[in-house]
Design goal:
This protein is an all-alpha fold. It has two domains: about 1-100, Rna Polymerase Sigma Factor, Chain: A (Orthogonal Bundle); about 105-198, Winged helix-like DNA-binding domain superfamily/Winged helix DNA-binding domain (Arc Repressor Mutant, subunit A, Orthogonal Bundle). Helix content is about 70%, strand content about 0%. The N and C termini lie far apart (about 60 Å).
Length: about 200
């Protein structure tokens, strides 16, 4: 690794962005090294399509490069990056008229602990009557698909991505209290819809 690469590796995200703003293209490589994989996982939970997610991640970093001069170092780079990706996901959903964003298989399975069904739904609701795991996932998936985008986004960022309410608020451009309310409303809608289906 070059001395510039080593220097960038030890800098904060915001310092690396400042290097990119001054024309040091190696800075983009460093940002991609840090965020390409987590961003890919984040986007895949929206699109449920790895090829599409790869394209969106590439486009996200392309925009980071082209819009580097618009980045304000007073703000967190990660927040700015996720906002770009979120906007691209939203654009993709509109163009393709997607009916669903969330893969519950990713939510419920895998090595990482993304939370159980009980974490998503309020604990006082009795869902034990749903005897078939697969049917439960499919039913929940359909209900999440029907959530308004604002509620769905807050739920994904908080429950799947394990962002704090404060970080969700920064990414979405709203207050932490609004994030809390959206998550509450998303869960409430899911529970109401489950009650009708059970």
């Amino acid at each position: 690794m070059s001395s510039l690469g080593v220097m960038l590796e030890n800098n904060s995200d915001e310092e690396v962005m400042l290097a990119l703003q001054t024309g040091q293209d190696k800075a983009l490589d460093e940002l991609m090294r840090r965020y390409k994989q987590p961003l890919f996982h984040f986007v895949t939970r929206y699109t449920r399509d790895e090829d599409t997610s790869y394209d969106i991640v590439q486009e996200t970093f392309f925009r980071v490069y082209n819009k580097a001069e618009t980045f304000n170092p007073a703000y967190k780079f990660k927040t700015w990056l996720y906002q770009i990706a979120l906007n691209l996901c939203r654009d993709y959903a509109r163009k393709k008229k997607l009916q669903s964003f969330v893969s519950l298989d990713t939510w419920m399975q895998g090595d990482d602990d993304y939370g159980s069904l009980h974490d998503i739904l309020a604990s006082d609701e009795n869902i034990e009557n749903l005897t078939e795991y697969r049917q439960t996932l499919e039913l929940l998936e359909k209900q999440i698909d029907q959530l308004p985008h604002k509620l769905k986004t807050a739920l994904i960022l908080f429950a799947l991505e394990d962002h704090s309410q404060e970080e969700c608020a920064r990414i979405l451009g709203i207050t932490p209290k609004t994030v809390e309310m959206r998550i509450y409303r998303a869960r409430k809608k899911l529970l109401q819809n489950f009650a009708k289906k059970i």
